[in-house]
Amino acid sequence: GGVGKTTLASAAYAEISHSFEAHCLLENIREESSKHGLTKLQEKFLSLILKADVKVRSEIEGRSIIETRLHNKSVLVVLDDVDDLKQLKALAGSHAWFGEG
Question: Which GO terms describe its molecular function (predicted)?
């Protein structure tokens, strides 16, 4: 903490997000993951990026939905306050999950 990374990330996101087919700024990953779990985090991510109410029954299903729905789109994903590799893998496990861009 301390150097305004969230502020910088938010400003950069606001500046360039319009250039992508789908975009999402997901804040407080550490806290959300700790309080609600990775499946709820995936639901929030998918609902924001797809602009629809998405329900996820398991982390594996969430990964599959992310890849299936976003693999052909140019996507900007900003994940703030990730503190565990599991969080990153649950939301953006591979660049192959997303289209070029």
Answer: ADP binding
Domain that holds residue 54: 5-94
99 lies in a domain? no
- Helix (H) / strand (E) element for 23: namely strand 22-26
Residue 100 has φ and ψ, to the nearest 5°, of -70, 150
pLDDT in tens, 10-60: 999 999 999 999 999 999 999 999 999 999 999 999 999 999 999 999 999
| Calpha distance 79→7 (Å, rounded) | 13
d(CA 45, CA 75): 12
